Fold this sequence. Notes:
- The longest helix is centred in the last third of the chain and has 15 residues, at 193-207.
- It contains eight helices and twelve strands.
- The model is unreliable at 120-129 (pLDDT under 50).
- It starts with a strand and ends in a 5-residue tail after the last strand.
- It has helices at residues 10-22, 33-39, 61-71, 85-93, 106-117, 158-168, 177-185, 193-207, and strands at residues 2-6, 26-30, 49-53, 76-80, 98-101, 132-135, 138-141, 146-149, 152-154, 175-176, 213-216, 220-223.
- With 228 residues, the chain is α/β, with parallel strands linked by helices.
- One of its GO terms (molecular function) is transcription cis-regulatory region binding.
- It comes from Streptomyces lucensis JCM 4490.
- Residues 130-225 bind DNA.
- One of its GO terms (cellular component) is protein-DNA complex.
- This is Sensory transduction protein RegX3.
Amino acid sequence: MRLLLVEDDNHVAAALSAVLARHGFDVTHARSGEEALQALVPESAGFGVVLLDLGLPDQDGYEVCGKIRKRTSTPVIMVTARADVRSRIHGLNLGADDYVVKPYDTGELLARIHAVSRRTVHEEPSAGGEDALHLGSVRIELPTRQVSVDGATIQLTRKEFDLLALLAQRPGVVFRREQIISEVWRTSWEGTGRTLEVHVASLRAKLRMPALIETVRGVGYRLVAPAA
């Protein structure tokens, strides 16, 4: 897999590139946001993942993430020292697929890279063969991966849509955390659990329906269908 590493510290980049190379990655190193954006044009450059450090010398890392998402669908993993949920949600809202908090374990980083690279690009229709799901004022278009509330389109990231579509296909049914992680992230790695929590929080905020996704303590989540 080709991987774009966006990191301004040459020593950190060299050490990480060596580790990634030993695990079969073909690493391209960009030292700034502008270098990263240039490397991603055209999208046929063929990168499987972008590993984006937020501490860049020329541009704010969040801004770079937003620009990357506008020009390519390549998965983006943010690397940040900010551990608070608000910062993570902000990154996800800009289109990041995942995040790693410094200092991180190399095994954790590799697991997250493999998890986002295994994502499903096209979702299959629901079991009932429906093309759209209606939940009160919420409409979920499965073929086009569009979500709207009261007719207004809501911009969701890939994983946010995957999570919402999964829960919405069986309203009221409790999905175990392990099941959600397996179906949405295509992994059984336990560290993805925190990512799930952040995606749920982001969905609640974007849809402006805090009660839409209910937390079932010790088990998982379920979607509570709103009144029509």
